[in-house]
Amino acid sequence: MARPDKAAAVAELTEEFRESSGAVLTEYRGLTVAQITDLRNSLGQNARFRIVKNTLTKIAVKEAGVDQEIQDLLVGPSAIAFVHGDVVEAAKGLRDFSKANSPLVIKGGIIDGKSMSAEDITKLADLESREVLLAKLAGALKAKQGQAAAVFQALPSKAVRLAQALADKRSQEAA
């Protein structure tokens, strides 16, 4: 029978996997406590960085019904950043921190139930933030509306010019 503290840890991890929009697995070997604290602070409210035991995490992954490919990544000292906000922003924070602190290695993760490799997480981090992408979309939609308005405005004026040209041609032929 499982010890109550381990059962509680598994239940907590299972709940984290179910509630989070993403989870990024990292290896933290070589980081000091101060560096881990800095990482947690840099992620802010967007993500929760937890050092986990691989055996308990494997059980939690199974209970949460998460993609089983993540179990292959649970080797060596593991920590997981559970993302509760913008996944791109959290991925950027982890990528930037790993560039500044080489001991932090991004192994991969799960975003919206789909497993992702370390390269996929890095590509995700290269995306612009949600706000910037929404602003670009709004700008593109506004430009298309302006183009549509110009087309609709041009149709009547072209029809009037065509009618005037036909009238001028008939008057020249009559004369």
From TrEMBL:
Q: Which keywords does this Swiss-Prot/TrEMBL entry list?
A: Ribonucleoprotein, Ribosomal protein, RNA-binding, rRNA-binding
Q: Is-annotated flag, keyword Protease?
A: no
- According to its UniProt record, what is one Pfam family this protein matches? Ribosomal_L10
Q: What domain of life?
A: Bacteria
CDD domains per record: Ribosomal_L10
Keyword Nucleotidyltransferase on this protein?
A: no
An annotated GO cellular component: ribosome
Function description: Forms part of the ribosomal stalk, playing a central role in the interaction of the ribosome with GTP-bound translation factors.
Q: How does it assemble?
A: Part of the ribosomal stalk of the 50S ribosomal subunit. The N-terminus interacts with L11 and the large rRNA to form the base of the stalk. The C-terminus forms an elongated spine to which L12 dimers bind in a sequential fashion forming a multimeric L10(L12)X complex.
Which family does the entry's similarity section mention? Belongs to the universal ribosomal protein uL10 family.
HAMAP family membership: Ribosomal_uL10
What is the recorded name of this protein?
Large ribosomal subunit protein uL10
Q: Which organism is it from?
A: Nocardiopsis tropica
